[in-house]
Every structure is written in C-alpha cells, then in structure tokens.
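Protocol step 4 of 5: obtain the predicted structure for the target chain.
Materials: sequence only (see below). No template structures provided, no constraints applied. The aim of this step is simply to have a reference model before the mutagenesis design in step 5. Sequence pasted as it appears in the construct record:
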Amino acid sequence: MNKPRRRTISLAALAGLTLAATPGAKATAIGYLGSDETTHEDWRTTSVAKPETFDPNGDNAYGTDGYYTVADDRSIISSLPPYINSVSNAGFVFNGNSHHDFDDPTQAIGAPGNINSGLMYPSNDGSDFAVLSFDLLQDANFVVTIPLGGHSVAHRPTSVKLVQTGGGDASAATTSIPAVGYVGYLFFAVDGSAGDTFDVVIGGAGGGMSVAGIAFEAAASPGSSDLVMIDITSDGDQVSVTWRSRPPPQQYRVFFSTDCISWLELEDSFPSQGATTTYTDPIAARFDFEMQPVPPLGFYRAMEQ
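Step 4 output (structure tokens):
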C-alpha cells in the first residue's frame, strides 16, 4: 500500500463526493431525544445556549414554532404551528401559585418575561394518564418539547411516553426523569403524516404528577421526506458524511462507489441519530486492508431501510 498516495485525499478532493438518497415508504417514527435540566426557566432566552438536538433551527429557543401551556391564572396559552391541527388537555389544570417561573411564550423570543408555570395533571390517581393529545394537519418532521414545572418533587412524573394513537402505533418513552422540584424539559423527535394522532402519557405515584404543556419546532421542512446531505469532511484517513434524517428507530443502509454504477454496502442497519445522522467511513483502513490505493473521487449513498 502506498501510504503517501492514500493521504493525498483532501477536503477539496472530497468536495466532489455526493450523497444520493433514496427514501423508502414513509412510516411515522417517534424517538426520545433526551432532557435538559440546566436551562431552567430560560427555554426561550436566546442568550442561553441550547443543544442542537433539542433546538434544530439553532435559534437558542425551544419550541419556536408553537406551544400550548398554562398561565398562572389557569388559562391556556396557545399558538400552534401550521402542521399541528389541534392540541387538547384531558386532565385538570392548576394555576401557577408558587410554582417556579419560566419564560412567557407569548413574548418575543430572545428576551421574554417570566410567568408562573401552571400545570396539567391527571383527573385520577392511576399510574398512566394521557394528559395531552394532538394531531397533524400536514406531514411534518419536528421536535416536541415537554416542559416540566411545579415546585415540588411530587409534581414530577416518573415516566413520560409519546404514543401514536391514530395512523400507526409508533411510540417512545423515558423513565430517566430526575426527582427534583424545578423547571426541566423532555424532548421527542416525531416524523409523521397528516392525520396522525398522538397522546402524551405520564406515569407516577399519584395525581400530583404533571406537565406544564407542550411545544413544537420543525426539524426539517414540514412534509419533506427527502434525505439531504448537509456536510462532508475528511482528515485524510476517514470521511464523515452527514444527512438530514428521520428520528430513531429509523435505520439506514450506507453505500460507497467510485463510479456511481457499482456500489459497496458499508452498513446495512446504521441507526438514526435524530434530526441529522453522521456516518464515518474509515476509508484509508478499508482500502489498506484491500491493499489498494484510496481513489481520488468517491460517492456515498444513504437509503432508508
């Protein structure tokens, strides 16, 4: 193997690599992305940095597209994005009282004022309760934010599940919810179709468990199911390709070619990483193993399973 020749691959040469994508039949997918326990009340304060996974449009605010929450006088504050048809609350609504403040979503993003976070909680003491429901007016790929408010550990559910109730049976859940008494946020990725319906199901020991509402932010253009390459990088030994993706549990097949005619399958079930997915090809090691020089030009293709 001629190592100097192999290392002549540069980012400039790799600019010719393309990512072709062939989407398969669309099925609704839901994935749990994680939680934020450090932003506290500043969910729409742009001076507080937000993780890209939870804030796909990068404006440092959660739920940019729309929200459905409770004010401190028990009134519903609602402004829904065009891809959400309706949101409803099936439980009781409690006023803010002495609950922790969080950013008022009715104010402009960037420097909002604070309001007490009212709560939505079950109308019974059962272990699981569908506290919120919503449905889609359009095909959409988006992040759901679930604010957790209150002022007591008793207000925290022990589990939260996002369940598709119409159009399919996708679901995702988390039980990793810290038992603390301050504002936090849970995040789910949804890639759904017009007419799909969903429930937010909370579980816990009693009727005190609650959420403070729901908010939405598009992860890609609503209705788009195309895979779009957004980045290619190389350090000479490996190539990383990134594309816009559906949320877990979506998986991808990844291929490589030097001529766009014959394709080598590199992965047959590469898992989605959320709104974007990055695959790293150890290209130098691959061709070294085959005792061949790395080609000066190559092409990558990702396909949904």
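Step 4 remarks: The chain has three helices and 22 strands. Residues 29-218 form one domain.
Proceed to step 5.
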